[in-house]
Amino acid sequence: MENAIAISGLHKSFGRTKALDGLDLQVPTGEVHGFLGPNGAGKSTTVRVLLGLLHADSGDVRLLGGDPWKDAASLHRRLAYVPGDVNLWPNLSGGEVIDLLGRLRGGLDEKRRADLVERFDLDPKKKGRTYSKGNRQKVAIVAALASRVDLLILDEPTSGLDPLMEATFQYAIQEEREQGRTVLLSSHILAEVEALCDKVSIIRNGRTVESGTLAELRHLTRTSITAELAGPPNGLAKLENIHDLKVDGNRVRFDVETRSLDEALRRLTEVGVRSLVSQPPTLEELFLRHYTTEASAK
Amino acid sequence: MTATLSRAEAGVAPAHELAGTWHLTRLALRRDRVVLPIWIVLLSIVPASTVKTFTQFYPTAADRQALQVGANTNPSYALLYGPPFDLTTAGGFISWRMCGFLALLTGLMVVFTVTRHTRAEEDTGRAELLASAVVGRYAALTSAVLVAGGASVLIGLIQYGSMVGAGLPAAGSLAFGASEALAGLVFTAVAAVAVQLAEYSRTANGIGTAVVGAAFLLRGAGDSTVDARWLSWLSPIGWVQQVRAFAGERWWVLLLPVAFALLVGAAGYWLLPRRDVGVGILPPRPGPARAAASLRTPFALAVRLHRGPLLGWTIGMAVVGAVFGSIASGIGGLVGSSPQAQEIMARLGGSEALTQAFLAAMAGMFAMVASLYGIQAVLRMRGEETAIRLEPVLATSVGKLRWAAGHLVFAFFGTAVLLLAGGLFMGLANGLRTGDVGGSVGDSLAGMLVQLPAAWVVVALAVAIFGLLPGFSAAAWAVGSLALLLSLFGPVVNLPQAVLDVSPFQHPPKIPGQELVATPLVWLTAVAAAALAAGLVGWRRRDVG
């Protein structure tokens, strides 16, 4: 089987609101895939379609080779899910919830369960609402990661976790990756996605706007360069793909798209470079650029 | 943490303890803009609309005298409706027939309202969101009390106005409206304490409704037992009746609910700062670190969620059944020796027939109450869904129907358990008095069981609403209440039979006393099955969430 998740042209509306508007998403087996988008972009709706909780209006959705709506119960033996908002039963302890969810899925790995409870510093004896948001989240994470499954669907799993637990979570996901598990990680925390994911898809307004490896996507971004030259710069302004150029005597500052980086540097060295500061593109920048440009285009 | 902050803040700025009350009150009114007006209209217009029925049914003084004698001699009437002070006037009749039930329903209304705007808000975490804004510590409770108390007062005012408008004496109408409004305030105060004690809104509702129910039972026991009349004076619903609207008003009795509401309400305010937001006075206990081996199926989860409420309801039904059963046999024996009373008795079929009719009528009442449990159990599914506790369960290999089945077992068979518990204890208590335990238990169980299909129709309609119109799940309560009101008040306000027949509880044979006819039972079961199937098909096809 090539793709653990294959979605094409997915549409879903709630009344007049279009939540998904032709979304595409491919996650090959064994990949850790980042699913990025601002609030309300349709990430959770996509996840809920994948879980068979919502019925797609149109489009093709395949999950682990099956139909997520029709084959929900059997497919769910092979996946585990962590929601971004976890609510527990008031009269069940955290330990009971972990065991229950694991057993409903078809059994959990006892050793891994004990290990995760320890690492996430979770008190399994507390009951439902006496947990803080972060601790409720930990209950769901332990329940999911202690299962022996092929696919993990994580919908903003670390919301409410402190930085220490966030690191623990990232380490645990690395382990899952080494086990060959497929992970769909929906998030808007870029550092998390940069640290964990092989590939990312960025969605906005229910549509996929970018998809690829981090390296590929970085090609689309700009490097910021500040330089002090031996003399006044020449010909920089005429170059294509240069943005926000500021010249102040011998000092220049500009952003350059990755495909013209080579050419721009050559122009600088022609004059002679005294000092050079370059800032590499981050996913954050890519993210911001996508949203600000599309927002201003509106 | 929120509580610590607000406590520290309270020392600095006590003047702001009520800040935001007005905004919260408006929010509560907006959220209740459908439910509350329905309660208010239903509870306030019923009494005045009965005036015509009374004059139609009892046109002459002789008719009314006969009614008075009949009510005096039959303690089961006193048990249900209260002491018949003066049934020779329309006002006296309405007051006797309705003021207890109306106080009971008003009590339920205010308990649900207060809980919804205090404890339930804390459960969802919305209260924290609001507490972080400029909202005083007492604001949420005060706004809930204002809304519930305001609704009670409004009900009393409309009752007063409409009864005067219908031509009843002003003094009696005022006593009626005032005592009903005060009953609402009394139970508002009870709810204000319940929400401080309980850990969850469900528990708070449980405590509140238990107090309301106990108040009704207490006065029922007092009113129907000659040597325990004082019991009625312990009950706020008893006070409503002891005001004696339209029967020589005793205004001083109104002081009892006023004092009670003030004292108990103050206790609620006193308790409030002594607990943390989101936690009750009764502290939570830690649970096991691992789940029992049996907790591995959706049904096992449903057992954990339903067993507490079902146990509580079963005990309640058993107690009520025992109380009613123990007085059933006395009904015939207590009938007066006057020739008039003897004649009425003979017309009704003698002492035994009277007892049987009473047991059958009780079976109908039990079925209506049990169906409310069934609705609650069905709506638990919607509760799990909206509280997003359902999602993680459906993300495991549990199918939608299998999950629903766990809850529906409780909704349908729980209803049956309640009827059997009520029937068993009613039969036992009656049998111990008459000496024929076996016959009495058999009769009363049979009487309860024939009502089961009717209760199931209401429960199945709730399933249909959950499956087909999830956004309107609260309408399931309207369905249940409609059936209940039709059967309770429909005959009193003289509704045509075709309208009365809408209520499923009109159809089962009245057992003991009547012949067992299977046709209506088959029909009711078929209607229930159809509604259940429609609901499940809808649930399987619809989106979750």
Structural class of chain B: mainly alpha
| Topology of chain B as a string of helices (H) and strands (E) | HHHHHHHHHHHHHHHHHHHHHHHH
Low-confidence parts of chain A: none
Helix content of chain A: 25-40%
Largest interface: A-B, 44 and 42 residues
What fraction, in percent, of the residue positions of chain B are helical? over 70%
CA radius of gyration of chain A: 23 Å
Mean pLDDT of chain A: 88
Largest beta-sheet details of chain A: 6 strands, mixed
Strand percentage of chain A, roughly?
A: 25-35%
Number of helices of chain B: 24
Give the N-to-C terminal Cα separation of chain B: 31 Å
- The end-to-end distance of chain A, rounded to whole angstroms, is 40 Å
Q: What spatial form of chain B do the alpha-carbon principal axes imply? A: globular
Taking all Cα atoms into account, the compactness measure Rg of chain B is 24 Å
Number of beta strands of chain A: 13
Sheet with most strands of chain B: none
> Would you report the number of β strands of chain B?
0
User: What are the segments of chain B in which pLDDT stays under 50 over at least 5 consecutive residues?
Assistant: 1-15
* Average pLDDT level of chain B: 86
Word description of this protein:
The complex is a heterodimer of chains A (298) and B (545). Helices cover 34% and strands 31% of the residues of chain A. In chain A, the strands form three sheets. In chain A, strands 5-6-7-3-8-9 form a six-stranded mixed β-sheet, sandwiched between helices. In chain A, strands 11-12-10-13 form a four-stranded antiparallel β-sheet. A three-stranded antiparallel β-sheet of chain A has the order 2-1-4, with helices on one face. In chain A, helix 3 (94-105) packs parallel to helix 5 (133-145) and helix 4 (110-119) runs antiparallel to helix 5 (133-145). With 298 residues, chain A is an alpha/beta fold. In chain A, strand 11 (242-248) and strand 12 (251-257) form a beta hairpin. Chain A is elongated. Chain B is an all-alpha fold and 545 residues long. Chain B contains 24 helices and no strands. Chain B has helices at residues 2-12, 21-31, 35-49, 51-57, 61-73, 75-81, 90-117, 119-124, 126-132, 139-165, 170-197, 201-224, 236-242, 255-271, 298-328, 330-333, 339-348, 350-386, 390-394, 400-434, 437-468, 475-489, 497-500, 519-541. Chain B starts with a helix and ends with a helix. The model of chain B is unreliable at 1-15 (pLDDT under 50).
